[in-house]
Design brief:
Blueprint (H helix, E strand, L loop, with lengths): L30 H8 L6 H14 L7 E6 L4 E7 L6 E7 L1 H6 L7 H8 L6 E4 L3 E5 L4 E2 L2 H5 L8 H13 L15 H26 L19 H14 L2 H8 L3 H18 L3 E4 L8 E3 L12 E3 L6 E4 H9 L7 H19 L6 H17 L1 H18 L4 H17 L29
Antiparallel strand pairs: 1-2, 2-3, 3-5, 4-5, 6-8, 7-10, 8-9
Helix pairs in contact: 4-7, 6-12, 8-10, 8-14, 9-14, 9-15, 11-13, 14-15
C-alpha cells in the first residue's frame, strides 16, 4: 500500500503509453457571434489569413480547404479545416496576443506535442511559434452538467475521464522528457523539436537569472522552466502585464491590485508548505476541454473520451487538475467526485504496479486525495481572476464583459476554504452556493 499523505508526498509514476483516444465531433459555434463578440481582439484579417496559410503549408496541407471558425476563445483563434478523404479534417490554432504574453516561444504547443507523442491527445501535424495544426476531434464538449449529473445517466463517463487523467499524471516529469521509441514519427519529431526549444529557453532563463536580469514579462525570456510549478510562472507573467498599466484592468473590476498580489503571495507560500503532489498536468481541465461521444456507448462499454487544448500543460499540482474538472458555481456533486477519485486511484495503482491492501487503508488513501483536491479550490478561482484582469489589460474595450467575470472569480476565491499549514484538511461537506448568473467554467 502506497501512502498518499496529502500535503506531504509527491507522486510521479513511470512513463507509459496508452491507446489513442477515440475521435469526437467538436461543437461548432456561430461564426457571426464570434466575430461580433471578439472582433476587436482579432488581428487584421489579411494577416490572420496569411498566418493560417503558413500553418497549413507547414503541415503540408493546401489552403483551399473549407474553413470554419470554431472559437476565438480567450487565448487563441481556432479553425476547423475540412479536406476531402483521405485527409479529412484538422484544427488550426493561431496563438493570440494573450497566449504570446503568457507563454514563452519555447512553451507554445509543448503540451500538445507531448500529449500527441504519448497517445493522449490529438495527432499533431505541425507546430511553430505562430500556432499548430492537429487532428479534428469528433465529439461534443462536456459541460458542468455532465460532470455533476446523476452518474446513473452515464455510468462509465467519470471513470473513463479518471483513467485518461491518471495516465497523463503518470507520465514522468520534467515536461521535457523525450517521447518513447516507437511513437508516431511526425509526433515524435515535433515533440523533439519542442523539447529542444524548451531546453534552449531554460538555458537562457538560467543565464538571465544568474546575471540578475530574469525579467517577468510574458513575451520575453521563458521563466516556466525556472518554476517548480508552471502555474506560478503563468500567474507571475500575467501580474507583470497587469502591473504595467493597472488602472485599466483593476479599476473596472473593482479589485485592488495590491490585494490580488498579496493573495497570490500568501497562497504560494501555503502551497509551498503543503508540498502537494506535482505531476505532468493538463493545466486547464475544465469540462469543455473534455470531448465525449455524442452517442451512448454499447452496454458495459466505456465512454470514448479525449482531452483537448494542452496549451497550459506542464508541472502542476495534481489537485489543481482534479478540482478544476469539478469546479462549479452551483452544487458540487460529492458522490460523483468520490467515484471519480476512486477510479483515478485505481488507474494510478495499475500504472505504477502498486499493491492494494484494500479495506480501511484504501478508504484513507481516498480521503487524503479528496482533501488534496479540495485544497486546490481557491487556487483555481484565483488563477481565473488574474487571467480576466490580464485579458482586460490587453483588451480594455472588453472590460464590460470581462470585469464581472474577474470579480466573480475573485469572490469565489475569497469564499473558498483556505489551505492550512501542515497536512491538507480532511474532507468536509460541501454546501451548495446556488447557481450563478455568470458564465462559469465553459469560459474559464
Amino acid at each position: 500500500m502506497i501512502s498518499l499523505v496529502a500535503g506531504a508526498l509527491a507522486y510521479a509514476g513511470p512513463a507509459h503509453r496508452c491507446a489513442p483516444p477515440s475521435p469526437r465531433r467538436a461543437v461548432l459555434r456561430d461564426h457571426a457571434q464570434i466575430v461580433a463578440a471578439l472582433g476587436r481582439q482579432a488581428p487584421e484579417q489579411s494577416a490572420q489569413r496569411e498566418a493560417l496559410a503558413r500553418l497549413l503549408a507547414g503541415a503540408g496541407l493546401p489552403d483551399d480547404g473549407a474553413i470554419t471558425e470554431l472559437s476565438a476563445g480567450f487565448c487563441n483563434w481556432v479553425y476547423r479545416v475540412d479536406y476531402p478523404a483521405p485527409t479529412g479534417s484538422v484544427v488550426a490554432k493561431l496563438f493570440s496576443p494573450l497566449a504570446r504574453l503568457r507563454l514563452s516561444p519555447a512553451m507554445r504547443g509543448m503540451g500538445d506535442a507531448r500529449a500527441a507523442a504519448e497517445g493522449l491527445g490529438p495527432r499533431l501535424h505541425y507546430l511553430s511559434t505562430e500556432g499548430l495544426v492537429v487532428d479534428f476531434v469528433q465529439g461534443a464538449e462536456l459541460t458542468e452538467g455532465d460532470i455533476h449529473a446523476d452518474a446513473a445517466l452515464r455510468p462509465r463517463l467519470l471513470g473513463t475521464i479518471a483513467s485518461h487523467l491518471a495516465q497523463l499524471h503518470s507520465l514522468r516529469l520534467p515536461h521535457t522528457r523525450m517521447p518513447a521509441a516507437g511513437a508516431a514519427g511526425s509526433a515524435a519529431a515535433l515533440a523533439s523539436a519542442a523539447v529542444a526549444r524548451h531546453e534552449a529557453d531554460a538555458a537562457t532563463s538560467a543565464e538571465a537569472a544568474a546575471g540578475g536580469g530574469g525579467g517577468s514579462g510574458g513575451g520575453g525570456g521563458g521563466g516556466e522552466a525556472a518554476e517548480a510549478v508552471a502555474l506560478w510562472a503563468f500567474i507571475r507573467k500575467m501580474l507583470a502585464h497587469i502591473r504595467s498599466a493597472p488602472e485599466s484592468a483593476v479599476a473596472s473590476a473593482g479589485i485592488p491590485l495590491a490585494a490580488v498580489e498579496a493573495e497570490v503571495a500568501r497562497m504560494r507560500e501555503r502551497f509551498g508548505e503543503l508540498q502537494l503532489p506535482v505531476v505532468l498536468g493538463h493545466g486547464d481541465l475544465k469540462p469543455s476541454n473534455v470531448m465525449a461521444g455524442a452517442d451512448a456507448p454499447p452496454p458495459g462499454a466505456d465512454e470514448a473520451v479525449s482531452f483537448i487544448d494542452f496549451e497550459l500543460a506542464g508541472a502542476h499540482y495534481r489537485g489543481y487538475d482534479l478540482y478544476k474538472l469539478f469546479r462549479t458555481s452551483g452544487e458540487l456533486s460529492q458522490p460523483n467526485l468520490r467515484a471519480f477519485l476512486r477510479a483515478y486511484l485505481d488507474e494510478v495503482r495499475g500504472a505504477c504496479d502498486l499493491s492494494d491492501d484494500g479495506g480501511a487503508s484504501r478508504e484513507l488513501e481516498l480521503d487524503e486525495v479528496q482533501a488534496e483536491t479540495y485544497a486546490a479550490e481557491p487556487l483555481t478561482w484565483l488563477e481565473a481572476a488574474v487571467f480576466f484582469l490580464f485579458a482586460i489589460r490587453q483588451f480594455p474595450d472588453e472590460a464590460p464583459t470581462w470585469a464581472p467575470l474577474a470579480a466573480q472569480r475573485w469572490e469565489r476565491c475569497a469564499a473558498s476554504p483556505r489551505p492550512r499549514r501542515g497536512p491538507a484538511p480532511r474532507p468536509r461537506p460541501r454546501r451548495a452556493r446556488g447557481p450563478s448568473s455568470l458564465p462559469n467554467d465553459e469560459q474559464r
